[in-house]
Design goal:
The chain is α/β, with parallel strands linked by helices and 698 residues long. 43% of the residues lie in helices and 13% in strands. It contains 27 helices and 22 strands. Strand 19 and strand 20 form a beta hairpin. Helix 25 packs parallel to helix 26. The longest helix is centred in the last third of the chain and has 27 residues. Pfam families: NACHT. Keywords: Cytoplasm, Repeat. This is NACHT domain-containing protein.
């Protein structure tokens, strides 16, 4: 337990008498210097105060509050403007929000300890903890509670919190939005200084006194939003003493007392954070409700995309690499995809795979304000690769100052698009060598790409061979493995060193061997339930093949393609391109291709159907597409399958209705299918519904 201070009234009076002409900070320092240390301070109350200020009338208070509310609204207008690096908005930003779920949070094994690295990615983090999906209005309807909003980096926590603040701001209600990254003060301060004087400097003592007095009397009319608890320099794992409104103490004690509702008990308090910082709040200061942010909806990501780019670029990306559009559902990834495609590096070409995208982003960073390194970007990049690989090897996404120091990475040279730093109000040295300071890659995928870059470009050849043989094909390295394949197999005709060429051959040999052995095991499972793990491994390997775009490897993968195969349920859209790339090279007869309850959206189904309809007629015996989320436009994709499937096509509930529920084909869609069947010579039966079976009438 950390050290706490017990301060007697006698000590306070003695010090205040001696320091009556000194500043508040000096009074506090003197009190703390005279105070003994105690071990258990849970019930200790610190009562020392500032010198009393002149009281204000109700009219003075309300006049000051109207001015403060306008200051808050002006701050929100300025901070709430969404800006993408290197891309200008063509129009006003639409009101789009990530999908929001209320979750159960403090059960056993709720989230990975200290944000442990998880190759499944942050979108998988809360899937077993969801209570219900909520809307933006549900957050606005909360009153007098302490709630937290948790999400991974780049998910839109700050944008959402700013929009909440604007929505909460009413003529007779005060909403203060404070970025905790901007409140890493080293010196003790009062709650009034934290929320008013430091947020809105330059006003009179009378103004601050009147506002703070009103806040204490009207706690039910206050909304406090503390954005980015994970960016604070302190931890709230341990309890802090109960303090009064005028106590001058470290920031963490102020925040702890806000969480416990010792301050403004009837106010609404909202904290946003990465998951681990909220998980480790002391049990006395935990939120009553926790919400987790997911991705943007498909519609919202498209709407936001068009603010910064045009429909032509959207269609181009959809045609060349539709998985990039699924990545656009994360606001940070949307930014990177747009900026990389609008102004791609000449050395990279089209950013049509995640590997190419991140290579483009890293190249673009050399010409941005995010990297300030006098030694050159390439030297810094090598150090970041080492840092990322070591962290992934240890299974962490949270980095310490010691790790940065060991990697010789100076935080002053890196902006938060690469590593998120907590440097506000601190010198570089104190930030770098402060033991409790933590750092993050701004998105887990950055860590994975840099890790893969270390494996490809920095790891010695002998070590690389051992790593491929013993580690790379384990689940822990799933995403890194895709990037490694993308970096090595997508070299094309570029001139490469001998070591890189040898690494490519080593990896190619082991990938083909893995494809053969996993495919063989999968086919022997005879579609029993325990084939799911093997199927998932197989599709991860297909993703590796697709990332590298090497046709010779795809041809080998196609030779081992199972004749009976069921796609993952549900099918992650990131797996679709790899599956399609391999499917293009399949020439063997397939007995059954199951897209059964894969919940494919319109884009993913179109991408798969576009490949399948190009293979030879009758090459697939049976196919099931029930349990997907097709749009009316996908009827043309379904019709394209009719020449390829020879025996049975099970449709069932494969379309998504206007009410969001799955539906069977309507009469117009049935008529189109029947017309096509009548034009082709086929014995195919199309099972639209248990009572509706279509076949050629000629």
């Amino acid at each position: 337990m950390s050290k706490r201070f017990k301060i007697s009234n006698k000590a306070v009076k003695s010090v205040m008498a001696e320091q009556s002409t000194s500043s508040n900070v000096n009074i506090t320092d003197a009190v703390l210097n005279q105070s003994p240390v105690i071990k258990d301070a849970e019930n200790v109350t610190i009562n020392y105060t500032q010198p009393p200020s002149t009281s204000s009338s109700d009219e003075d208070e309300w006049n000051s509050m109207r001015k403060l509310i306008n200051l808050c609204i002006s701050y929100l207008e300025k901070e709430g403007k969404l800006r993408l690096q290197g891309v200008s908005a063509k129009e006003e930003i639409p009101v789009v929000h990530p999908i929001i779920h209320e979750i159960t949070y403090y059960g056993k094994d709720t989230v990975p300890v200290d944000e442990r690295y998880d190759p499944k990615g942050p979108n998988e983090l809360f899937k077993n903890k969801i209570k219900r999906e909520v809307c933006f209005q549900d957050l606005l309807d909360q009153k007098g509670k302490f709630i937290s909003i948790v999400a991974s980096a780049g998910s839109g926590k700050t944008v959402l919190s700013l929009r909440l603040a604007k929505a909460f701001s009413l003529p007779q209600r005060l909403c203060i939005h404070l970025k905790l990254m901007d409140a890493n003060y080293e010196q003790p301060l009062t709650l009034r200084q934290l929320l008013l004087e430091n947020m809105f400097p330059g006003h009179s003592e009378e103004f601050y006194t009147a506002c703070f007095s009103w806040m204490q009397k009207n706690t039910d009319k206050i909304v406090l939003i503390l954005d980015g608890l994970d960016q604070a320099q302190y931890s709230l794992k341990e309890t802090s003493p109960k303090i009064n409104y005028n106590a001058c103490v470290p920031v963490k004690d102020l925040v702890f007392n806000l969480c416990r509702k010792h301050f403004f008990p009837n106010s609404l308090l909202i904290i946003t954070s990465r998951p681990h910082a909220v998980l480790y709040l002391h049990e006395l200061a935990r939120p009553q409700v926790t919400y987790a942010l997911g991705d943007l909806s498909v519609f919202n990501s498209h709407e936001l995309f068009l603010v910064f780019a045009d429909e032509d670029l959207w269609r181009k990306i959809n045609t060349t690499s539709s998985q990039m559009l699924s990545m656009c559902r994360n606001p940070l990834m949307l930014q990177m995809i747009i900026s990389s495609n609008i102004d791609p590096s000449e050395d990279i070409g089209d950013a049509s795979t995640p590997t190419r995208l991140f290579a483009t982003v890293m190249k673009n960073l050399t010409q941005s304000g995010h990297i300030r390194n006098t030694e050159g970007f390439n030297e810094l990049l090598k150090r970041l690769r080492v840092l990322a690989f070591d962290a992934t090897m240890e299974g962490k996404v949270v980095l310490t100052a010691k790790q940065l120091r060991n990697a010789q990475v100076n935080p002053a040279t890196i902006h938060d698009i690469v590593v998120q730093l907590h440097t506000h109000g601190l010198s570089v040295n104190s930030c770098l060598f402060e033991g409790n300071t933590k750092f993050y890659f701004c998105h887990q995928t950055f860590q994975e790409h840099l890790t893969a870059s270390y494996v490809v470009y920095e790891m010695p050849l002998e070590e690389f061979q051992e790593f491929v043989e013993t580690s790379l094909f384990q689940e822990h390295w799933t995403v890194v493995r895709r990037f490694v394949c993308g970096l090595l197999f997508d070299l094309g005709s570029k001139a490469v060193s001998g070591d890189l060429q040898m690494k490519k051959e080593i990896l190619k040999k082991h990938l083909i061997w893995q494809l053969a052995i996993i495919s063989e095991k999968y086919m022997k499972m005879e579609r029993r339930r325990d084939d799911e793990a093997l199927r998932d491994k197989l599709f991860d390997l297909y993703a590796c093949v697709g990332e590298g775009k090497d046709s010779s490897i795809a041809t080998k993968a196609a030779e081992h393609f199972p004749t009976i195969i069921q796609l993952p349920q549900p099918m992650n859209s990131n797996l679709v391109p790899g599956f399609c790339f391999v499917m293009k090279h399949v020439t063997k007869q397939l007995d059954d291709l199951g897209l059964f309850f894969c919940f494919l959206d319109a884009n993913s189904f179109h991408e798969i159907a576009s490949v399948i309809k190009e293979i030879k007629p009758g090459q697939i015996g049976e196919m099931e597409i029930i349990g997907n989320c097709l749009q009316p436009s996908n009827i043309d994709d379904v019709i394209g399958l009719l020449r390829v499937v020879s025996d049975g096509l099970w449709m069932g509930y494969c379309f998504i209705g206007d009410d969001g529920r799955l539906r069977v084909a309507n009469q117009d869609e049935i008529n189109k299918i029947q017309t096509t069947l009548n034009k082709i010579q086929t014995g195919l039966k199309v099972y639209v519904d248990p009572g509706i079976i279509l076949r050629s009438q000629k």
